[in-house]
Amino acid sequence: MERSYNGWDDLFKEEFAKPYFVELKRFLVKEYAEKRIYPPKRLILNAFDNTAYDDVNVVILGQDPYYNPGQAMGMSFSVPRGVAIPKSLVNIFEEIEKDTGAPTCIEGGDLTPWARQGVLLMNTVLTVEEGKPNSHKDKGWEIFTDAVISHLNKRPRGMVFMLWGRNAYAKKELISETRHLVLTAAHPSPLSAYAGFFGCRHFSKANEFLAGQGRSIKW
Asked: N or C end of the chain, less CB within 10 A?
């Protein structure tokens, strides 16, 4: 039985058939067979499984998955329930509380409650080798995530795009700022959070934008 992709089917089927993705898939088969690659294969497209195409209100774009064992779950910045909260996510929660005046609604580090409100938690690259950040850069994932952003950009309903870090910022040119709200900041990593992530107020700005459409996110 053919898998359904939560409303992303038309885009995915088109991209999966392209030569770059055929090469990417060949590369990943070899990588998963020979090395420790994250997230687990079944979770590579988890962000899309949890956020239907028609439901997207906000896109939070990170760099690539967590590269330590047990952390990556196919949604940017999210970790499975019971896993220690990574410092980047601690910083995100800190900014939410300072920005909105209330603590996050998330218990632990599993951001699935955001995803189910229409927050697409996507990285620019969807896989990584253990202990080697950016190890799957320039293998084809950027073309795929460009296609996702471009596909979303065509929708008439306005969305919020939060682009965190240099790799995410590179996607800005794909987005129409006449329809959508584009917010950029440093990556929330401890190495860069004080260089422009803290104080960005992206969470309140997103809800101010969405309020015009009668929507909001419980952060």
From this structure: N
Cα separation, 163 vs 187, whole angstroms: 8
Q: What share of the chain is helix, strand, coil (3-state, %, to 5)?
A: 40, 10, 50
Distance of alpha carbon 201 from alpha carbon 146, whole angstroms:
25
For residue 203, give Cα distances in angstroms to 70, 100, 159, 210.
27, 7, 13, 11
Instruction: At 118, list the tokens.
Output: 């229409």
What does each of the 219 residues of the chain score in pLDDT, given as a tens digit? 456 678 999 999 999 999 999 999 999 999 999 999 999 999 999 999 999 999 999 999 999 999 999 999 999 999 999 999 999 999 999 999 999 999 999 999 999 999 999 999 999 999 999 999 999 999 999 999 999 999 999 988 999 999 998 888 999 999 999 999 999 999 999 989 999 999 999 999 999 999 999 999 999
> Distance between terminal CA atoms of the chain?
37
Strand duo 37-38 + 58-62: pairing: unpaired
Backbone angle region of 101, left / alpha / beta, with phi > 0 → left and psi within -120 to 50 → alpha: left
CB count in 10 Å sphere of residue 113: 16
- Per the listing, tokens 């006449």 go with 178
- Picking from 60, 58, 87, the residue whose alpha carbon sits closest to that of residue 76 is 60
Task: Give the whole-angstrom CA distance, residue 122 versus residue 184.
Answer: 15
Catalytic (active-site) positions: 64
